[in-house]
Structures are given as C-alpha cells and as structure tokens.
C-alpha cells in the first residue's frame, strides 16, 4: 500500500513554477522551519497511530493464533513502517531524535538474544556474551555478572536488556525486535522468501519451539514499549514540545542547518552508504534493513520520500490529507533558481530509482536477492539508486553554501569514501 505521492522530474518543475509564483517571493525562513516541524508532528503521529493498529492486530493474533491472524499482524507491521521511515530524515539534524532513535529502529540485531535461532547462527560470539541468551527461554539472565529476573517479560525488562553490556547489536526493543518475533529468521541465504515463523510458536496448546506463552509476552511488551516511545516523540514535536522549542531557541539558521544535515546525512552516509552500498559490495543478504520481513526495499523508498518531503514542504498522511507550507526549495529558489531546479529534479530521480527497487520487491524479487553476487541486473538496479542518492547530496551541500549556513556536517560512509577499508 503506497500512500505518498511520487513526484517525477516533470511534475517537480511544475511544482517549482507554482512555488516561485505563490510563495518563493515572500517565503519566510521561520515559516519554512514551521513547515518542517509540522511535518514531523504529523509523521510521528501517523507512526503512533499505525503502531496502535499493529498492537490491535497482534492482540487479535495472540488471542487466536492462526496463519491468517499472523498474516494480518505482519501486514500491520509493514504498514506501520510507512510513516515511520519518512521520519528518519529528522534523525541526524536533531539530537533529541538521534538519541531516541536507537530504541525504536536499531539494527542489525543479534536475534539469539531474543529467541531460538537456527544452528547456522552459531552458539557464541567473542564480541557479545548475550549472543544466544534467549530471553524467551530463560527466566533468569546474567549480564556482566549481575543476575536479572526475567520471569515476567515486561517493557521495563526489555528497556534494561536493550543494548545490554554496551553492545549495540543487543537489540531488545523496537520495530526490528517485533519483526523478528512475527517472521523469524530469513534462512533463504539470498534466495526467494522471507522469514517463516509458524503461528504455532504462539499456541497455548501444541506449542512449537517451546515457551509460546513467554514469546507472546515478549511480543506484546515490545509493542507496548514501541507505542510508549512513539508517544514521547509525538509529544516532542507538538506545538509546545521539546523538539520545536530546541529549534526555536537555537535560531532559524540553526534550524535550517538541521534540515539540510538530516537530508544530506540520510541521503549519503546512512542510506546510500551503510544501508545500500555496503551490502551491495559484500553481496550479503544480512546487510538489509528489514531483513526478517524482506521489506527492505520499501523502507529505503520511504526514507527517500522523507527527504523529498522536507525539500518540498509537503507530507501526505496515512489518511490521505496533506500537511504543507512554505518550503525549503522555495527558500533556495530565492537565492539560486538553477540550484532549486536541480535539487527538485535530482531528489525526484532518487525517489524514482528507489521506487524501481521497491517495484521489484512487490513483484516478488526482494532486496536481498537484488544484491546477491552474480545478479547483474539486480545489482545495477540498486547501484542506480545509490548513485542517485550520492548525486543529490552534492546539491544539498551546495544549498548549504547558497543559504550561507554553518554547522552542517553530512555523515560519510567507508563504503562510499574508503571502499577498500570495507574488506580489511
């Protein structure tokens, strides 16, 4: 289900003509920042609403586990990703978001911390003593020599376990923990198919893989914690929230810098680099964002769309309504009309390239298959999207100069900046 509108290069130029005539001549930088904040508020509110819908589907599944009710819960998870991924552009320029994000969207994760895993996963890791701790199977845990009572799996317990021992791969909470509990491991090694956890893993009678009651506890606790975390961020972007107050207190130029930092860092270092180029270079099916559900291409697409939302000052909500206002592209147009056109066209091109990858997923060929070694056509499709993201970053950097902004540090990635280091 695709809710947002995809702007092509042609429609971008049409939009630019409208922006120039109707708002660019009088655009107020403070009003552009207000639009940015309003879009954040709406997108986080949509993320919260869809997470609550996910919870309803999970409760219905746990009440009567079946293949159909599990399928419904999985579908609700996928829909919940749509608005959330469009908020990731707010992460890098806003410390309040970046400090919080790890609780809800951390990846990759050592799933053996949470539940049973296939023997191919291995039994231990030199880096992580909790690699196969299996919270669901064990009512008592030991972390750094301290005994932890896990007899009841609660949101509080999961918060304590998240990144336990200071190890980032000990992901106990958030979308991807829920994803693993709904799909299980993807054991197809780059072949067709996602995770295939059976609904019988949640039966009170005829339970498969043991501990069905505790698995249900974990799934519900993780979902409740996700909702609580999203409530916090939705509040932060409300009219009296901390995120808006920080932008206001730091001044308009700082807020504009935050906008362009988020756009550039997500575009280049995070999405083009860590999430796409690295996996393509390694041809590693584990290097995909939504690896259990094989939903990675969709997540990448909505990340790209989030960047475009900030540029255009427009966000299409899950109910179809549109939040819009004075835009960053109009502000750029005031100082460099050619650059504003270039940004519009380049970002539209990246969204279209990501959409082509997404279309492959919807047509049955998932992201892990596209990046597999030997798939020349699939590799090229992903590389085209990477190249488009890299190209648009150049325009974002030029916009920083054109607007005479300071303090913008766009994150890099070894896979793009020092590719030989990846193999050392």
Write a structural description.
The chain is mainly alpha-helical and 424 residues long. The chain is 58% helix and 3% strand. The protein is built from 15 helices and 4 strands. The chain has helices spanning 9-22, 29-63, 67-85, 95-105, 155-161, 175-183, 212-236, 242-250, 252-282, 296-312, 328-335, 337-362, 367-370, 376-402, 414-417, and strands at residues 140-143, 146-149, 314-316, 322-324. The strands form 2 sheets. Strands 1-2 form a two-stranded antiparallel ribbon. The protein is globular. It starts with 8 loop residues before the first helix and ends in a 7-residue tail after the last helix.
List the helices and strands and how they pair.
Elements lengths: L8 H14 L6 H35 L3 H19 L9 H11 L34 E4 L2 E4 L5 H7 L13 H9 L28 H25 L5 H9 L1 H31 L13 H17 L1 E3 L5 E3 L3 H8 L1 H26 L4 H4 L5 H27 L11 H4 L7
Antiparallel strand pairs: 1-2, 3-4
Helix pairs in contact: 1-12, 2-3, 2-7, 2-9, 3-6, 3-10, 4-7, 5-7, 6-7, 9-10, 9-14, 10-12, 11-12, 12-14
């Amino acid at each position: 289900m695709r809710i947002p509108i995809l702007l092509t290069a042609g429609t971008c130029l049409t939009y630019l003509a409208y922006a120039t005539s109707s708002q660019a001549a009088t655009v107020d930088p403070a009003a552009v920042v207000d639009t940015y904040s309003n879009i954040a508020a709406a997108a986080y509110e949509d993320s919260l609403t869809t997470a609550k819908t996910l919870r309803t589907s999970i409760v219905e599944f746990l009440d009567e586990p079946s293949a159909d009710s599990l399928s419904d819960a999985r579908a609700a998870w996928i829909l919940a990703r749509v608005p959330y991924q469009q908020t990731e552009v707010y992460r890098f320029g806003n410390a309040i978001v970046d400090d919080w994000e790890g609780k809800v969207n951390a990846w990759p994760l050592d799933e053996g911390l949470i539940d049973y895993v296939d023997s191919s996963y291995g039994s231990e890791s030199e880096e992580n003593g909790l690699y196969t701790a299996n919270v669901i199977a064990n009512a008592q845990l030991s972390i750094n020599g301290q005994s932890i009572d896990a007899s009841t799996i609660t949101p509080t317990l999961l918060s304590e376990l998240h990144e336990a021992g200071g190890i980032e791969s000990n992901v106990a909470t958030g979308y991807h923990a829920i994803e693993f509990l709904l799909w299980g491991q993807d054991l197809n090694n780059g072949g067709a198919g996602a995770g295939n956890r059976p609904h019988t893993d949640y039966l009170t009678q005829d339970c498969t893989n043991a501990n069905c009651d505790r698995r249900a506890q974990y799934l519900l606790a993780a979902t409740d914690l996700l909702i609580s975390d999203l409530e916090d961020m939705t509040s932060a972007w409300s009219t009296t929230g901390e995120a808006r107050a920080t932008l206001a207190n730091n001044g308009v130029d700082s807020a504009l810098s935050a906008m362009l930092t988020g756009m550039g860092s997500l575009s280049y270092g995070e999405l083009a680099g860590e999430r796409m180029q690295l996996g393509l270079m390694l041809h590693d099916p584990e290097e995909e964002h939504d690896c259990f559900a094989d939903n990675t291409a969709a997540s990448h697409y909505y990340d790209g769309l989030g960047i475009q939302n900030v540029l255009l000052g427009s966000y299409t909500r899950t109910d179809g309504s549109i939040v819009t206002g004075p835009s960053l592209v109009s502000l750029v147009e005031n100082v460099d009309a050619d650059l504003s056109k270039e940004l519009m066209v380049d970002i539209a091109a990246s969204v279209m390239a990501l959409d082509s990858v997404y279309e492959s997923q919807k047509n049955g060929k998932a992201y892990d298959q596209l990046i597999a070694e030997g798939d020349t056509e699939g590799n090229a499709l992903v590389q085209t999207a990477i190249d488009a993201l890299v190209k648009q970053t150049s325009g974002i950097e030029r916009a920083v100069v054109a607007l005479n902004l300071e303090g913008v540090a766009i994150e890099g990635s070894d896979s793009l900046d020092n590719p030989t280091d990846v193999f050392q």
